[in-house]
Amino acid sequence: MLDDVDRRILRHFQVEPSLTTAELAERCRISSGVCWRRIEKMQAAGIIEGQEAVIDWATLGYAVEVSLRITLDKTQARAFDEFTAAAREVAEVIEIQTFLGRVDVRLSVLARDMAQYQQVYRDRILTLPHIADIEALMHIARVKRDEVLPV
Amino acid sequence: MIELDEIDRMILRALVQDATQSAGELGRRFGLSQPATWRRIRRLEQAGVIKGRRLRLNAGSLGFGVTVFLGIKLARKGQVSLEDFERAVSAIPEVQTVEHVLGLYDYRLRVVARDISDFERVLRRRIMTLPGAGDVEANVLLSEERLPGPIG
Questions:
Q1: Given Cys at both, which of A16, A35, A117, B29 links A25, Cβ 3.0 to 4.6 Å?
Q2: What is the pLDDT of residues A76-118, one digit of tens each?
Q3: What is the predicted ipTM?
Q4: What is the mean pLDDT of the segment spanning B131-138?
């Protein structure tokens, strides 16, 4: 189980993942050795899974992001598997989530502009298997995006 | 807008997988010198293509058993200040992301909770009491995968 020191490390580390162990230790007011051992332990336990670079798609010319909320035809036993397998092949899809609720699957789709979005939507999305219904949400802004867990 | 070549894309894909890899390691993998790789990474960072790092934590092992996505429609539009709503919703610790969207809902939230009854507490005490919150739709996350996207 985690103690207060572990939680303190995770709180600071989540906010600034690029800190070195020494810097992190200083923020947490513990020694570098302790900090390093705690991080090692949490990595070994699978609590800290890794670090990923975050891409700003707008700088690469992808100005449009759309959330597509999809209901699948559940009379088809393999609808989920076949749909997600096909969606993985679409280069513009950056996220696939499945849900319990009114919506079955959500795709995050990128496009350079509305014209390209329309093309991707018609040629690649509407042709995905077992779709019963689609609703689109257009992203305007990300107000909070850090995905920090309240440990 | 910045143009990427094939090597930039490979470096970017590798860093999305694991951002802790050094320029030396990546260089060896892609047949580049350490300084050449370092210059490419620096260019990607300075152009803002890499806007930071995210620590990937296992939510389940930290006791957060459920993630719920909420679609929120604002009630009485025009009378509620978007800034007030955004400030209040961003201050809730269980709310991980807030996206302003156009369509069926006005905002999309990612919420973590220990379990369903903990989620109900967050929903009733914190979300439903937000200034201007109207219709709320909840979908419980079952699985999630992130893909490399157009750089893949």
A1: A35
A2: 889 999 999 999 999 999 999 999 988 999 999 999 999 999 9
A3: 0.90
A4: 90
C-alpha A76/C-alpha B115 separation (Å) is 31
Assigned CATH topology for domain A4-44: Arc Repressor Mutant, subunit A (1.10.10)
Q: In chain B, where are the structural domains located?
A: 6-46, 65-140
Q: Does domain A57-138 have CATH number 3.30.70.920?
A: yes
Per residue in B90-129, pLDDT (tens digit) is 999 999 999 999 999 999 999 999 999 999 999 999 999 9
B149 touches A at CB < 8 Å: yes
What is the reported pLDDT for B78? Answer: 67
CATH class of B65-140: alpha beta
- How many Cα atoms are found within 13 Å in the side-chain-facing hemisphere of B39? 4
CA angle (A32, A35, A36) in 5-degree steps? 85
Return d(Cα B139, Cα B45) in angstroms, integer.
35
Residues of B in contact with A13 (CB under 8 A): 55
The structure tokens listed for B53 are 């790092």
What is B6-46's CATH number?
A: 1.10.10.10
Question: What's the one-letter identity of residue A6?
Answer: D
Is B51 close to A56, i.e. CB distance below 8 A? yes
- Calculate how close chain B gets to A113, using CA atoms only, in Å: 14
CB spacing of A95 vs B110 below 8 angstroms: no
